[in-house]
Design brief:
The protein is α+β, with helices and mostly antiparallel strands and 332 residues long. Helix content is 34%, strand content 19%. It has ten helices and 14 strands. The protein starts with a helix and ends with a strand. 36% of the residues are buried.
Length: 332
């Protein structure tokens, strides 16, 4: 009898007690992404709590303003994305903007004074606008409704950021990818981020940001080239002297030949004032036409792509996972 009781005690120990000893609890993970569990603890809850403020450098007034994180994000989301976009797209933008802010602060990135953490210049950090200025730019009958929508997007995602291997990602975003996003190495060189891969998004052609043209005379083009390259020459105008010689996997111009110079697609975009590096070149009798697809560098989240996905029924988490690979969405 004693042996039977002993065996039963050992059986209970094996079934219930031992698994509890050797099982390690997972960190909070709302999206079920692979490879994101205890590593999320590298985001310090003491540093990024509800009372976190952001020191913003206002480039126009040359002043620093300290704002609560979500108050700052209201100004970012309302400046970066149209209020008439779907609410799930706005939520995705809020999470991306919060993540981008955390990344910038943690890495001390950006061109602003040392007593600031981020600036309101979209060419350096991300756009920002005050509530008063934003309201004044909306039609009077839509002001409160629009602002309520922005508040919902920011407050309903309070504290949410995107991480990869437990660290806030460099959450790049842009206006319109032209149907397919780009990898960072083709824009800025260096090395790629594993969570920023080229992905396709249907429906972006339905937005006004999708297509544009830049038309200039041959003389204007030559002048722009000579301002950049003093030795610029072009013997004749044809497909062999002004053309795209290499494309990226996403279909953007990688190398462009203009006369006696080879430019990167990104350099050509900047030099000729194009909205993206996804373009075609047509040489006419007296002018050159650049037909452009998309708007922005094309890396990371596409804003019109987000709205298109939201219209298809995807929520903000699904939108984020579409544009950023193998990431987790966590609460700070």
């Amino acid at each position: 009898m004693k042996k039977i009781i002993g065996y039963m005690a050992l059986l209970i120990l094996a079934i219930f007690v031992i698994p509890l000893v050797f099982t390690k609890p997972f960190a909070s993970q709302e999206t079920g992404s692979v490879g994101e569990n205890e590593e999320a603890s590298s985001i310090s809850s003491e540093e990024w709590n509800d009372g976190k403020t952001v020191r913003v450098w206002h480039t126009k007034s040359q002043t620093v303003e300290e704002l609560p994180m979500d108050t700052y994000l209201l100004g970012v989301v309302s400046a970066e994305m149209p209020a008439d976009f779907e609410i799930e797209a706005l939520k995705a933008q809020a999470v991306v903007a919060r993540t981008y802010t955390v990344y910038k602060i943690q890495h001390k990135a950006g061109k602003h004074p040392e007593n600031a953490e981020i600036c309101d210049d979209p060419n350096c950090c991300q756009a920002w606008i005050s509530k008063e200025d934003r309201m004044n730019r909306w039609e009077e009958g839509q002001r409160q409704q629009n602002w309520n929508k922005i508040e919902e997007a920011v407050h309903s995602t309070h504290g949410k950021i995107i991480t990869y291997e437990g660290k806030a990602i460099n959450a790049f975003f842009h206006s319109n990818s032209g149907g397919k996003t780009e990898v960072p190495i083709n824009v800025w060189g260096g090395s790629d981020y594993p969570y920023l891969q080229s992905v396709e998004t249907a429906g972006e052609e339905n937005y006004q940001q999708y297509a544009s043209q830049v038309i200039m005379t041959k003389e204007e083009l030559m002048q722009k080239m000579k301002e950049k390259y003093a030795d610029f020459q072009i013997d004749h105008w044809g497909e062999d002297t002004i053309c795209i010689t290499e494309y990226t996997d996403s279909g953007r111009a990688k190398t462009v030949k203009i006369g006696n110079h080879l430019l990167s697609g990104v350099e050509a975009r900047t030099l000729f004032g194009l909205k993206s590096a996804h373009f075609a070149i047509q040489v006419g009798e007296n002018q050159v036409t650049f037909s452009v697809i998309g708007y922005g560098h094309g890396v990371g989240l596409s804003q019109t792509g987000s709205d298109s996905l939201a219209k298809q029924g995807e929520n903000y988490e699904e939108i984020i996972h579409h544009f950023y690979q193998n990431v987790a969405i966590i609460s700070m």
